[in-house]
From TrEMBL:
One of its GO terms (molecular function) is transmembrane transporter activity. InterPro entries: MFS, MFS_dom, MFS_trans_sf. The keyword Translocase does not apply. GO terms for cellular component: membrane. The lineage of its organism: Eukaryota, Metazoa, Ecdysozoa, Nematoda, Chromadorea. It is found in: Membrane. Pfam families: MFS_1 (PF07690). This is Major facilitator superfamily (MFS) profile domain-containing protein. Gene3D superfamilies: MFS general substrate transporter like domains. The chain crosses the membrane at residues 45-71, 114-134, 174-197, 217-238, 250-271, 277-299, 311-332, 344-365. Residues 1-369 form the Major facilitator superfamily (MFS) profile domain. Its main location: membrane.
Length: 398
């Protein structure tokens, strides 16, 4: 799925800009859900039959980050951006809280195939519901009142307000902006730390600290619950915090997220195998929960600076996240081949260094104001005043 997301991330971004989220996201879910339903029938045929299904499942994964950027830039009032992005991304934790115990129960009670059937059917139902309810802009939704529309579009990009033809994405300007690169670097560190915990927490607890495997499965659900709670509190606090600048808030919340994650990972390398099981669980839980504040840091920064082009910036974020997803197993297997506590001490130290260094890059170059390439430029052309974007002045890089 990670490779599939890596391959289709750019396609999703182009499709979102061309036809909108109401069409693209349900299509991605339909492809992923269909592949999930077919998986039990393909499994007996071996790896070559399963591989295309996994690649198809990656299409939905590839849509996650671009959709966050697209929806927040089109639907979120600037005064409520922190809380909006927090609620929008809460689905990531809610899905983990639901799917992990549900999959276990289905495997035990009905067989592993039913886990795929239930989740595949759920994907198709969600795709249908999304298409029926969602609209690409608040102007198109009949349940948005004039007062709500004025609040949503206040200080928003001109293209969102007017509903005019979408200008081409200013690829050259985006890739030349240090603030955008700061976001991408921050997300690499974020994905590196988060994926290490997500993929290897049960392995570390069982293989290194000798905690029984049946207990590690239960403990795996605690971090997303804690992360969801802290994320909601952080989003509300972020919007109500008016005593510091928006850029300072980005730095503060991103630092709390990434430094907090690294700080609580380090003690895990010094625990004694066979000791109290609650202590490593506590460190893992607080570490993952800290990452929930990233929504008020680098994720929020995407919408603030890239506005109507947030979906493209987030598509590259998805690409970076997938790279981290693929690199983490290689990193862990190289540093900790025998799963000794000494080896894992180096793993946690390495992850902490990545988190701290990437956060430093973000804090130095991050911005909170709309980039110049998002703003329309007034120009006189044969006595007719028109609006163009910086993207119109140069040929986009394909």
């Amino acid at each position: 799925a990670g490779v599939g997301a890596l391959i289709t991330a750019a396609v999703i971004a182009v499709a979102l800009h061309s036809v909108g989220a109401r069409t693209v996201f349900p299509m991605a879910l339909l492809i992923s859900g269909s592949a999930t339903l077919l998986m039990p029938h393909m499994a007996p045929s071996g790896l070559l039959a399963i591989l295309p299904m996994r690649l198809m499942q990656g299409s939905a994964v590839a849509a996650v980050m671009p959709m966050i950027g697209y929806i927040s830039s089109h639907w979120a009032p600037l005064s409520e951006m922190g809380n909006f992005v927090t609620m929008l991304t809460a689905g990531i934790q809610i899905s983990q809280i639901i799917t992990m115990p549900l999959s276990g129960e289905l495997c035990v009670s009905a067989g592993w195939k039913w886990s795929y059937y239930v989740h595949g059917t759920a994907s198709l139902c969600i795709a249908s519901a999304f298409w029926l309810v969602f609209r690409d802009s608040p102007e198109q939704h009949r349940h948005v009142s004039p007062k709500e529309l004025a609040l949503i579009t206040k200080n928003g990009p001109a293209s969102r307000k007017t509903g005019s033809k979408r200008p081409p994405v200013p690829y050259r300007a985006i890739f030349a902006d240090p603030a955008v690169w700061a976001i991408w670097v921050a997300f690499f560190g974020n994905s590196f730390g988060y994926q290490m915990i997500l993929q290897f927490m049960p392995t570390f607890l069982n293989k290194v600290l000798a905690i029984p495997i049946e207990r590690t499965g239960f403990f795996a659900i605690l971090p997303p619950i804690a992360q969801l709670g802290l994320k909601v509190v952080g989003g509300i606090t972020n919007d109500k915090l008016t005593c510091i600048t928006e850029r300072s808030k980005l730095r503060l919340f991103n630092t709390l997220a990434m430094v907090g994650c690294g700080f609580f990972l380090l003690p895990l390398g010094f625990l004694t195998p066979g000791g109290a099981s609650w202590l490593p669980i506590a460190f893992f839980t607080v570490s993952v929960a800290s990452m929930g504040l990233i929504t008020c840091g680098s994720i929020k920064s995407v919408t603030l600076i890239s506005r109507q082009y947030s979906h493209f910036v987030m598509a590259i974020v998805q690409f970076v996240v997938c790279i981290g997803y693929l690199l983490v197993p290689l990193f862990v297997s190289t540093i900790a081949p025998t799963n000794s506590i000494q080896e894992w001490r180096l793993v946690f130290a390495g992850v902490c260094i990545v988190l701290l260094s990437t956060n430093a890059v973000f804090c130095y170059w991050c911005q909170a104001e709309p980039a110049e390439w998002t703003k329309p430029i007034a120009r006189e052309d044969e006595s007719i005043r028109v609006l163009v974007t910086p993207a119109d002045e140069s040929t986009p890089i394909a």
